[in-house]
Design brief:
- The protein is 28% helix and 26% strand.
- It is α/β, with parallel strands linked by helices.
- It has a single domain, classed as Rossmann fold.
- The protein has a 5-stranded mixed beta barrel with strand order 5-8-7-6-9, surrounded by 4 helices.
């Protein structure tokens, strides 16, 4: 089983989380026409996992979401010839049954951003996005998550915003009226590009904060990125459980 994993906020130590006495980790740099992508290959008894930090950059700085070259990241994932691509996204939540500290499973994307993302600039290739995420993989993730949390929303609509600023309360209200459950800054472009590859895709949403204006009892509560990162980091073990469940059952 070969899985490519795209992750970001709070997941910088995911390779360490997956390591054990019998695993082997290798650093691999993947070249593409959109730039080089550093990756970590984790080999275990269950198979191989290619970890890609979507915010990678040389040094300590992190690439902000609006400057991520998603084509390079998805090219790197595709070059691994994976059986499945897993997106791990930190999101702000607008629903009571996915409070910060829990993980849900995405079923659709609401991406109204104006910037197009495609591998096909010279010829019109129209990829189908009727069923964006693989149903079998989504169910596996839902079952794995349900072992460690009481409730696992499995039909989340993920709204795409470009960032790097967090959204305003009015923007969140509008997204809710449009049918969104959570909001993030990276799944939209990834899902579009992965649709063009034909590789099965699954996405899990790590609830890291209440969306603007949605904090129970305190709608004026501010959102702090360091707190968001710390909350997401607490969910690494559950993300690892999802990966292992996918390796064992997909």
């Amino acid at each position: 089983m070969r899985i490519a994993v795209l992750s970001g906020t709070g997941m910088s130590d995911l390779a360490l989380e997956m390591s054990n006495s019998s695993s082997r980790n290798s650093e691999i740099r993947v070249d593409s026409q959109w730039g080089q992508v550093p990756t970590i290959l984790v080999e275990t008894s269950l198979g191989k996992v290619l970890l890609i930090d979507r915010h990678h950059r040389e040094g300590e700085a992190r690439t902000p979401p609006h400057q991520i070259e998603h084509r390079a990241n998805i090219h790197a994932a595709k070059s691994f010839s994976p059986d499945l691509i897993l997106s791990v996204n930190s999101v702000g939540t607008m629903i009571e049954n996915l409070p910060p500290g829990m993980i849900g499973v995405a079923s659709d994307v609401l991406d109204l951003a104006t910037r197009p993302w495609t591998f096909h600039d010279e010829d019109a290739i129209h990829a189908d996005r009727t069923s964006i995420f693989d149903k079998k993989a989504s169910k596996i993730c839902s079952l794995a998550l349900s072992k460690t949390q009481e409730n696992t929303p499995s039909r989340l609509v993920v709204a795409q915003c470009v960032g790097p600023q967090f959204e305003s309360p009015s923007e969140i209200d509008a997204l809710v009226r449009l049918g969104a459950d959570v909001v993030g800054m990276t799944l939209g472009p990834e899902s579009r590009l992965i649709a063009e590859t034909g590789i099965p895709h699954v996405a899990i949403s790590c609830s890291s904060n209440w969306a603007a204006g949605r904090t129970p009892g305190d709608p004026s509560a501010e959102i702090d990125h360091h707190a968001v990162d710390a909350m997401a980091a607490k969910l690494r073990a559950q993300v690892r459980n999802c990966i292992e469940a996918l390796q064992d059952n997909f």
